[in-house]
Specification:
345 residues, alpha/beta, 8-stranded mixed beta sheet, 4-stranded antiparallel beta sheet, 14 strands
Length: 345
């Protein structure tokens, strides 16, 4: 049974992609993009999922909406992804595409690239209204009214429903993507790096829009990103990933300002801090914390180090780190860390 405060629980999730070779695409190995991940998303919260490119964070988001198996049936998804619906709990991993059809309205996704995620041959009204054809019994008139309502809620104008994606800027296209995600009244939205392709000034507008919509529609959000300052601003809790594993998770303010894992410390040391109480000519300059430079390259998921995956770059690693994979352990109040050498307060 799921915790009554959670809308989604991920238990021991592993995702493995086949590695093929030759003309006949013979399988020669498996790439473990995600390994034994456990996460929970609570009702009404924003969980920030951060990490370097290739760490597996987007793979988790796509596994939740079953996009991985839909695009590539050879992908192996193991573990449980439990979704709480109005009258039951379902395991997304065990559902076929047809069985999941009636539950797709509960989870929607906002993609990273607003330029490629919208069908250029469809009008904005058709794009936003398309989910309603399959997940509601609305008439054409009711769908049009719903589209106009959602456009206005996301900062657009109702008459823009007749226009096409190429007529809009990147920020406007992302607003259209958000409106499409809201069409079916979802309970959970996967925001997969929704602002990384936008200008900085537009990023703030989209983040504020998501926060306003979350309160109004009582949404839970999984916010996937690599910009830690953005994640800290919008998230209730933060989970940090490295090489397919969750290595730290806790309250947003605690993880951002008091990271415990050596990798989280290095990641956060690169975030610039604004200056305050400085002469006018220095306003806008940035102060950097002491930078922690990690040695070596990120290991390939095809040949992960034994034991702790971070040990080959870790500044405090010891020989025993190669012997056993560290599990997430409670170090402080709701602050979990996967490291043998870290203690809480």
């Amino acid at each position: 049974m799921m915790n009554k405060d959670n809308i989604l629980e991920i238990r021991n999730l592993s995702v493995k992609f086949p590695v093929t070779k030759g003309f006949f695409k013979r399988k020669v190995a498996e790439l473990a993009a995600v390994e034994n991940v456990n996460l929970e998303i609570r009702k009404g919260e924003t969980l920030g999922l951060v990490g370097e490119s290739g760490c597996g964070k987007s793979t988790i988001g796509k596994a939740i909406i079953n996009l991985l198996r839909f695009n590539s049936p050879d992908v192996k998804v193991e573990g449980e992804i439990l979704l709480k619906t109005e009258d039951s709990e379902i395991d997304i991993v065990k559902q076929s595409n047809n069985e999941l059809r009636k539950y797709r309205g509960y989870i929607q996704i906002v993609f990273q690239d607003p330029y490629s995620s919208l069908n250029p041959r469809m009008s904005v009204g058709q794009i936003i209204g398309e989910p309603l054809k399959y997940h509601s019994r609305m008439s054409k008139k009711e769908r049009d009214e719903r589209v106009a309502y959602l456009l206005e809620k996301t900062g657009m104008q109702a008459e823009q429903a007749k226009r096409y994606p190429h007529e809009f800027s990147g920020g406007q296209r992302q607003r259209i993507g958000i409106a499409r995600a809201l069409a079916t009244n979802p309970k959970l939205i996967i925001a997969d790096e929704p602002v990384s392709a936008l200008d900085v000034s537009i990023q703030a507008q989209i983040i504020n829009l998501l926060q306003d919509l979350q309160k109004e529609f009582d949404l839970s959000i999984l916010f996937i990103a690599h910009d830690l300052s953005v994640v800290e601003h919008i998230s209730s809790r933060i989970a940090v990933m490295y090489l397919g594993n969750i290595i730290e998770i806790g309250n947003s303010n605690e993880v951002y300002h008091n990271p415990l894992h050596p990798y989280s410390k290095a990641l956060l040391s690169a975030v610039p801090l604004p200056k305050f109480n400085v002469p006018n000519e220095d306003v806008g300059n940035e102060v950097k914390k002491e930078r922690i430079i990690l040695k070596g390259d990120i290991p390939t998921p095809l040949n992960k180090p034994s034991g702790c995956g971070f040990r080959t770059r870790c500044p405090i690693a010891k020989p025993e780190c190669a012997e056993k994979i560290p599990m997430l352990e409670l170090k402080e109040d709701e602050h979990y860390v996967a490291c043998f050498l870290v203690d809480g307060k």
